[in-house]
Each structure stands twice: as structure tokens, then as C-alpha cells.
Amino acid sequence: YYKDGTRLHPRIVALLTQKTDEKIINTQTTTRDLFLTMKGDDVQSLQEFLIAKKAGPLSKELARIGATGYFGSYTKNALAEYQKTVGIQPSIGYFGIITRTYIEALPSEY
Questions:
Q1: Distance of CA 73 to CAs 21, 38, 47, Å?
Q2: Whole-angstrom Cα distance, residue 69 to residue 104?
Q3: Counting C-beta atoms within 10 Å of the first and last residue's C-beta, which end of the chain has fewer, N or C?
Q4: 58 with 73: CB under 8 angstroms?
Q5: Longest dimension (CA), the chain
Q6: If you average pLDDT over every residue of the chain, what do you get?
Q7: Is pTM beyond 0.85 here?
Q8: 3-state secondary structure of 14
């Protein structure tokens, strides 16, 4: 609940109460490459994943605007930051086969 007594949106509650090590992005349904100006549920899942990973200040900026489902500069920058922290090259903020394969290989409870 908010301070004024109104209820939080169920999606927000789910994000706030989930385990931080829970795999959010479903790479089984995210089969297309993701890049600037794209929209969709798969983009939103990627954003939620990046926000949960808290890789650095750019993911915090993405968290500030939230998971909108639009792949803009905040998503690109947060993705590049995550790629760099885990050693994915090139770290350019493009969600393609390299990043998808890396995330698919993570244990469910990583």
C-alpha cells in the first residue's frame, strides 16, 4: 500500500517481493534480437531483468523510469553496463545471440 492507503499495482508488488536472484527474463520466449526503438513484452522483460541485476548506475537510471517496454537509450545503456560487468563482448547494448545465450546458461536461481 502507498502511504495514502491506496493499493500498489500487482506488478509492482510482484517485483518488490520477488527474490533478487530469481530469473526474470524468459529467454525461451525472447527469440528476437532487441535494440533501439523496439517495443514489446520481451523488451519489458529485459528491462525488468536489468533493473533486478543492479549492475551499476545505468541500471539505477533505468529503474528510475521503469520497465516501459520501449527499448530506448536507458535500456541500451543499462544493457551495455550489464554486458560489461559479466564480460560479454562487445558490450554495446544490443540484445542478440551472445547475450541471450549467456542468460540462458544462467541457473534458474542464479
A1: 25, 11, 12
A2: 21
A3: N
A4: no
A5: 47
A6: 83
A7: no
A8: helix
Q: How much helix, strand and coil, in percent to the nearest 5, is found in the chain?
A: 50, 5, 50
* End-to-end CA gap in the chain: 30
Dihedral sign (CA 92, 79, 36, 31): positive
pLDDT tens for each residue of 30-56? 789 999 999 999 999 999 999 999 999
Angstrom distances, CA of residue 95 to CA of 15, 33, 50, 75: 22, 6, 12, 10
Cell numbers given for 13:
508488488
Q: Residues, the chain, total?
A: 110
